[in-house]
UniProtKB/TrEMBL annotation:
It comes from the Bacteria. Transmembrane segments: none annotated. InterPro entries: AAA+_ATPase, IstB_ATP-bd, P-loop_NTPase. GO terms for molecular function: ATP binding. SUPFAM superfamilies: P-loop containing nucleoside triphosphate hydrolases. Coiled coil: none annotated. This is ATP-binding protein. Gene3D superfamilies: P-loop containing nucleotide triphosphate hydrolases. Keywords: ATP-binding, Nucleotide-binding.
Protein backbone atom coordinates (compact mmCIF):
# COMPACT_ATOMS: atom_id res chain seq x y z
CA UNK A 1 0.00 0.00 0.00
CA UNK A 2 2.77 2.40 0.92
CA UNK A 3 5.02 1.47 -1.96
CA UNK A 4 3.00 3.61 -4.32
CA UNK A 5 3.23 6.76 -2.19
CA UNK A 6 6.28 8.28 -3.80
CA UNK A 7 4.88 7.76 -7.27
CA UNK A 8 1.56 9.19 -6.16
CA UNK A 9 3.18 12.25 -4.59
CA UNK A 10 5.24 12.86 -7.72
CA UNK A 11 2.15 12.57 -9.84
CA UNK A 12 0.56 15.33 -7.71
CA UNK A 13 3.45 17.61 -8.68
CA UNK A 14 3.13 16.54 -12.30
CA UNK A 15 -0.54 17.43 -12.19
CA UNK A 16 0.22 20.88 -10.78
CA UNK A 17 2.82 21.55 -13.47
CA UNK A 18 0.49 20.35 -16.19
CA UNK A 19 -2.38 22.52 -14.96
CA UNK A 20 -0.19 25.58 -14.63
CA UNK A 21 1.30 25.08 -18.08
CA UNK A 22 -2.18 24.85 -19.52
CA UNK A 23 -3.29 27.95 -17.63
CA UNK A 24 -0.26 29.88 -18.87
CA UNK A 25 -0.96 28.85 -22.44
CA UNK A 26 -4.53 30.13 -22.13
CA UNK A 27 -3.31 33.45 -20.69
CA UNK A 28 -0.81 33.81 -23.51
CA UNK A 29 -3.49 33.17 -26.11
CA UNK A 30 -5.75 35.73 -24.51
CA UNK A 31 -3.05 38.41 -24.54
CA UNK A 32 -2.08 37.57 -28.12
CA UNK A 33 -5.67 38.08 -29.20
CA UNK A 34 -6.26 41.31 -27.29
CA UNK A 35 -2.81 42.92 -27.12
CA UNK A 36 -0.44 41.50 -29.76
CA UNK A 37 2.11 44.18 -28.92
CA UNK A 38 2.61 42.57 -25.51
CA UNK A 39 3.04 39.16 -27.10
CA UNK A 40 5.69 40.59 -29.42
CA UNK A 41 7.59 41.91 -26.42
CA UNK A 42 7.24 38.56 -24.71
CA UNK A 43 8.60 36.73 -27.72
CA UNK A 44 11.48 39.16 -28.04
CA UNK A 45 12.37 38.51 -24.39
CA UNK A 46 12.41 34.81 -25.15
CA UNK A 47 14.71 35.34 -28.11
CA UNK A 48 17.07 37.55 -26.13
CA UNK A 49 17.16 35.08 -23.23
CA UNK A 50 18.24 32.35 -25.64
CA UNK A 51 20.83 34.70 -27.09
CA UNK A 52 22.05 35.40 -23.56
CA UNK A 53 22.56 31.79 -22.59
CA UNK A 54 24.38 31.11 -25.86
CA UNK A 55 26.66 34.10 -25.29
CA UNK A 56 27.45 32.94 -21.77
CA UNK A 57 28.38 29.50 -23.06
CA UNK A 58 30.54 30.92 -25.82
CA UNK A 59 33.72 32.21 -24.21
CA UNK A 60 35.31 35.15 -25.95
CA UNK A 61 37.21 38.37 -25.48
CA UNK A 62 34.29 40.71 -25.47
CA UNK A 63 31.69 38.20 -24.23
CA UNK A 64 31.42 39.98 -20.88
CA UNK A 65 30.42 43.23 -22.50
CA UNK A 66 28.01 41.42 -24.77
CA UNK A 67 26.38 39.58 -21.86
CA UNK A 68 26.01 42.86 -20.01
CA UNK A 69 24.40 44.44 -23.05
CA UNK A 70 21.91 41.61 -23.57
CA UNK A 71 21.01 41.55 -19.89
CA UNK A 72 20.22 45.25 -20.03
CA UNK A 73 18.15 44.76 -23.11
CA UNK A 74 16.11 41.99 -21.46
CA UNK A 75 15.59 44.13 -18.39
CA UNK A 76 14.34 46.93 -20.55
CA UNK A 77 12.00 44.67 -22.51
CA UNK A 78 10.64 43.17 -19.30
CA UNK A 79 9.97 46.57 -17.80
CA UNK A 80 8.05 47.55 -20.94
CA UNK A 81 6.08 44.31 -20.89
CA UNK A 82 5.16 44.67 -17.21
CA UNK A 83 4.19 48.27 -17.69
CA UNK A 84 1.93 47.42 -20.60
CA UNK A 85 0.34 44.52 -18.73
CA UNK A 86 -0.36 46.61 -15.67
CA UNK A 87 -1.72 49.48 -17.77
CA UNK A 88 -4.18 47.01 -19.35
CA UNK A 89 -5.33 45.91 -15.91
CA UNK A 90 -3.35 42.64 -15.61
CA UNK A 91 -0.96 41.62 -12.86
CA UNK A 92 2.64 41.95 -14.01
CA UNK A 93 3.33 38.22 -13.76
CA UNK A 94 0.36 37.38 -15.97
CA UNK A 95 2.59 35.84 -18.64
CA UNK A 96 4.83 33.96 -16.20
CA UNK A 97 4.25 30.41 -15.03
CA UNK A 98 2.69 30.43 -11.55
CA UNK A 99 4.47 28.07 -9.17
CA UNK A 100 2.70 26.73 -6.10
CA UNK A 101 6.14 26.40 -4.52
CA UNK A 102 8.82 28.80 -5.64
CA UNK A 103 11.57 26.82 -3.92
CA UNK A 104 11.30 23.62 -5.95
CA UNK A 105 9.25 25.03 -8.83
CA UNK A 106 6.70 22.28 -8.23
CA UNK A 107 9.10 19.42 -8.75
CA UNK A 108 9.09 18.35 -5.08
CA UNK A 109 12.87 18.26 -5.00
CA UNK A 110 15.72 20.65 -4.45
CA UNK A 111 18.67 18.80 -5.93
CA UNK A 112 18.35 15.27 -4.59
CA UNK A 113 16.56 16.29 -1.38
CA UNK A 114 12.80 16.52 -0.94
CA UNK A 115 11.58 20.13 -0.79
CA UNK A 116 9.90 21.46 2.33
CA UNK A 117 6.58 21.22 0.51
CA UNK A 118 7.03 17.50 -0.12
CA UNK A 119 5.90 16.41 3.33
CA UNK A 120 2.61 18.22 3.04
CA UNK A 121 1.91 16.39 -0.22
CA UNK A 122 2.87 13.10 1.38
CA UNK A 123 0.44 13.77 4.23
CA UNK A 124 -2.26 14.53 1.68
CA UNK A 125 -1.67 11.25 -0.16
CA UNK A 126 -1.20 9.20 2.97
CA UNK A 127 -4.29 10.58 4.67
CA UNK A 128 -6.44 9.85 1.63
CA UNK A 129 -5.17 6.26 1.53
CA UNK A 130 -5.31 5.47 5.21
CA UNK A 131 -8.02 3.78 7.20
CA UNK A 132 -7.66 6.76 9.55
CA UNK A 133 -9.66 8.99 7.23
CA UNK A 134 -12.68 6.79 7.94
CA UNK A 135 -12.01 6.22 11.65
CA UNK A 136 -11.61 9.88 12.56
CA UNK A 137 -15.07 10.73 11.29
CA UNK A 138 -16.27 9.13 14.51
CA UNK A 139 -13.18 9.28 16.68
CA UNK A 140 -12.32 12.94 17.15
CA UNK A 141 -12.29 15.49 19.94
CA UNK A 142 -15.71 16.87 18.96
CA UNK A 143 -17.26 13.52 19.81
CA UNK A 144 -15.52 13.03 23.10
CA UNK A 145 -18.02 12.25 25.86
CA UNK A 146 -16.66 12.42 29.36
CA UNK A 147 -19.96 11.26 30.83
CA UNK A 148 -19.07 7.74 29.66
CA UNK A 149 -16.51 7.64 32.46
CA UNK A 150 -17.69 7.01 35.97
CA UNK A 151 -17.13 9.71 38.57
CA UNK A 152 -17.03 7.09 41.33
CA UNK A 153 -13.64 6.06 42.46
CA UNK A 154 -12.77 2.58 43.60
CA UNK A 155 -10.29 1.67 46.31
CA UNK A 156 -7.92 0.46 43.61
CA UNK A 157 -7.22 3.94 42.22
CA UNK A 158 -6.51 7.36 43.60
CA UNK A 159 -8.85 9.14 41.17
CA UNK A 160 -12.18 8.31 39.60
CA UNK A 161 -12.06 7.20 35.93
CA UNK A 162 -13.58 10.54 34.96
CA UNK A 163 -11.05 12.61 36.86
CA UNK A 164 -8.27 10.45 35.44
CA UNK A 165 -9.33 10.78 31.80
CA UNK A 166 -9.88 14.49 32.27
CA UNK A 167 -6.28 14.91 33.39
CA UNK A 168 -5.04 12.98 30.34
CA UNK A 169 -7.18 15.04 27.94
CA UNK A 170 -6.07 18.29 29.49
CA UNK A 171 -2.47 17.32 28.98
CA UNK A 172 -3.09 16.24 25.36
CA UNK A 173 -5.14 19.29 24.41
CA UNK A 174 -3.21 21.96 26.29
CA UNK A 175 0.36 20.71 26.03
CA UNK A 176 0.96 17.74 23.77
CA UNK A 177 -0.83 18.92 20.62
CA UNK A 178 -0.19 22.70 20.79
CA UNK A 179 3.55 22.14 21.44
CA UNK A 180 3.90 19.13 19.19
CA UNK A 181 6.65 20.65 17.10
CA UNK A 182 8.84 21.48 20.08
CA UNK A 183 8.66 18.44 22.35
CA UNK A 184 9.99 14.89 22.12
CA UNK A 185 7.28 13.31 24.19
CA UNK A 186 6.40 9.68 23.51
CA UNK A 187 3.17 8.34 24.91
CA UNK A 188 2.25 4.92 26.23
CA UNK A 189 -1.48 4.41 26.70
CA UNK A 190 -2.11 1.31 28.75
CA UNK A 191 -5.17 -0.14 30.40
CA UNK A 192 -8.03 -2.55 29.88
CA UNK A 193 -10.00 -2.88 26.64
CA UNK A 194 -12.72 -0.34 25.94
CA UNK A 195 -11.25 2.42 28.08
CA UNK A 196 -10.87 4.89 25.20
CA UNK A 197 -7.23 4.45 24.15
CA UNK A 198 -7.92 4.06 20.43
CA UNK A 199 -10.47 6.86 20.51
CA UNK A 200 -7.91 9.25 21.94
CA UNK A 201 -5.14 8.03 19.59
CA UNK A 202 -7.38 8.60 16.57
CA UNK A 203 -8.40 12.05 17.83
CA UNK A 204 -4.76 13.04 18.25
CA UNK A 205 -3.97 11.69 14.78
CA UNK A 206 -6.76 13.74 13.24
CA UNK A 207 -5.69 16.99 14.88
CA UNK A 208 -2.07 16.52 13.88
CA UNK A 209 -2.85 15.40 10.32
CA UNK A 210 -5.12 18.41 9.90
CA UNK A 211 -2.16 20.56 10.97
CA UNK A 212 0.02 19.00 8.28
CA UNK A 213 2.02 16.50 10.34
CA UNK A 214 2.74 13.10 8.93
CA UNK A 215 1.08 10.64 11.29
CA UNK A 216 1.23 6.92 10.59
CA UNK A 217 -1.22 4.59 12.23
CA UNK A 218 -0.48 0.91 12.56
CA UNK A 219 -2.10 -1.85 14.51
CA UNK A 220 0.62 -4.08 15.90
CA UNK A 221 -0.33 -6.74 13.32
CA UNK A 222 0.14 -4.28 10.46
CA UNK A 223 3.42 -3.18 11.94
CA UNK A 224 4.73 -6.75 11.93
CA UNK A 225 3.68 -7.07 8.27
CA UNK A 226 5.63 -3.87 7.59
CA UNK A 227 8.68 -5.31 9.38
CA UNK A 228 8.56 -8.33 7.08
CA UNK A 229 8.24 -6.16 4.00
CA UNK A 230 11.25 -4.14 5.06
CA UNK A 231 13.33 -7.15 5.96
CA UNK A 232 12.43 -9.57 3.19
CA UNK A 233 11.32 -7.31 0.32
CA UNK A 234 13.91 -4.68 1.17
CA UNK A 235 11.30 -1.92 1.12
CA UNK A 236 13.47 1.07 2.09
CA UNK A 237 10.73 3.65 1.41
CA UNK A 238 8.57 1.97 3.99
CA UNK A 239 11.39 1.81 6.52
CA UNK A 240 12.08 5.49 5.96
CA UNK A 241 8.43 6.33 6.43
CA UNK A 242 8.14 4.38 9.70
CA UNK A 243 11.27 5.94 11.14
CA UNK A 244 10.90 9.50 9.92
CA UNK A 245 7.18 10.17 10.14
CA UNK A 246 6.30 12.86 12.69
CA UNK A 247 4.27 10.49 14.80
CA UNK A 248 3.98 6.72 14.62
CA UNK A 249 0.94 5.33 16.37
CA UNK A 250 1.11 1.65 17.24
CA UNK A 251 -2.28 0.49 18.32
CA UNK A 252 -2.92 -2.55 20.46
CA UNK A 253 0.63 -3.69 21.09
CA UNK A 254 0.51 -7.20 22.45
CA UNK A 255 -2.40 -8.33 20.29
CA UNK A 256 -0.03 -9.70 17.66
CA UNK A 257 1.87 -12.94 17.78
CA UNK A 258 5.08 -12.22 19.64
CA UNK A 259 8.13 -13.93 18.21
CA UNK A 260 11.87 -13.45 18.31
CA UNK A 261 11.62 -11.60 14.99
CA UNK A 262 8.92 -9.24 16.30
CA UNK A 263 10.88 -8.43 19.42
CA UNK A 264 14.11 -7.71 17.55
CA UNK A 265 12.46 -5.55 14.90
CA UNK A 266 10.37 -3.65 17.43
CA UNK A 267 13.43 -3.00 19.53
CA UNK A 268 15.35 -1.70 16.49
CA UNK A 269 12.48 0.56 15.47
CA UNK A 270 12.12 1.99 18.98
CA UNK A 271 15.82 2.72 19.10
CA UNK A 272 15.95 4.27 15.65
CA UNK A 273 13.08 6.58 16.46
CA UNK A 274 14.37 7.51 19.91
CA UNK A 275 17.76 8.36 18.41
CA UNK A 276 16.17 10.62 15.84
CA UNK A 277 13.72 12.20 18.28
CA UNK A 278 10.79 11.00 16.20
CA UNK A 279 7.70 10.64 18.31
CA UNK A 280 5.62 7.55 19.02
CA UNK A 281 2.30 6.78 20.61
CA UNK A 282 1.81 3.18 21.67
CA UNK A 283 -1.34 1.76 23.14
CA UNK A 284 -1.72 -1.63 24.76
CA UNK A 285 -4.24 -3.62 26.73
CA UNK A 286 -1.41 -5.22 28.65
CA UNK A 287 -0.32 -4.09 32.07
CA UNK A 288 3.25 -2.86 32.45
CA UNK A 289 4.18 -6.13 34.14
CA UNK A 290 2.71 -8.23 31.32
CA UNK A 291 4.38 -5.99 28.79
CA UNK A 292 7.75 -6.73 30.34
CA UNK A 293 6.96 -10.46 30.44
CA UNK A 294 5.90 -10.59 26.78
CA UNK A 295 8.44 -8.23 25.26
CA UNK A 296 11.55 -8.78 27.30
CA UNK A 297 13.11 -6.45 29.76
CA UNK A 298 15.03 -4.41 27.20
CA UNK A 299 11.89 -3.34 25.33
CA UNK A 300 9.83 -2.63 28.40
CA UNK A 301 12.64 -0.58 29.92
CA UNK A 302 12.78 1.48 26.71
CA UNK A 303 9.04 2.04 26.97
CA UNK A 304 9.01 2.89 30.64
CA UNK A 305 12.13 5.05 30.46
CA UNK A 306 11.28 7.07 27.35
CA UNK A 307 7.51 7.21 27.27
CA UNK A 308 5.04 9.22 29.28
CA UNK A 309 2.80 6.63 30.89
CA UNK A 310 -0.93 7.26 30.72
CA UNK A 311 -3.09 4.73 32.47
CA UNK A 312 -6.65 4.27 31.20
CA UNK A 313 -9.25 2.63 33.38
CA UNK A 314 -12.95 2.40 34.03
CA UNK A 315 -15.79 0.28 32.70
CA UNK A 316 -15.67 -0.94 29.13
CA UNK A 317 -17.10 1.98 27.12
CA UNK A 318 -18.03 -0.20 24.16
CA UNK A 319 -20.14 -2.41 26.40
CA UNK A 320 -21.61 0.67 28.05
CA UNK A 321 -22.46 2.27 24.70
CA UNK A 322 -24.28 -0.87 23.59
CA UNK A 323 -26.23 -0.86 26.81
CA UNK A 324 -27.40 2.73 26.55
CA UNK A 325 -28.11 2.77 22.81
CA UNK A 326 -31.65 1.35 22.96
CA UNK A 327 -32.72 4.06 25.41
CA UNK A 328 -31.33 6.79 23.22
CA UNK A 329 -33.33 5.99 20.12
ZN1 LIG B 1 8.64 22.89 -2.93
Amino acid sequence: MIKGYKAEVLSLYEQIRENETKALKARKQEIERLYPEITELDQEIGKQSLHLSRSILKAGNNSEALVFEIKNKIMDLRARKYELLVSKGYPQDYLNIHYHCNICKDTGYVGVNPCSCYNAKLVQVYYKNSQLAEAVKKNNFDNWDISLYSSHKTDMEKYSPRKNIETIYQYILKEYIPNFKNHNENLLFFGGPGTGKTFLSDSIAKDLLDSGYLVLYRTSDELIKNFREIKFDNNRDLEDLLINCDLLIIDDLGAEQITEFTITELFNLLNAKLLKNKKMLISTNLSLIDLAKSYTERISSRLIGNFKLCKFYGEDIRVKLNLIKPNKS
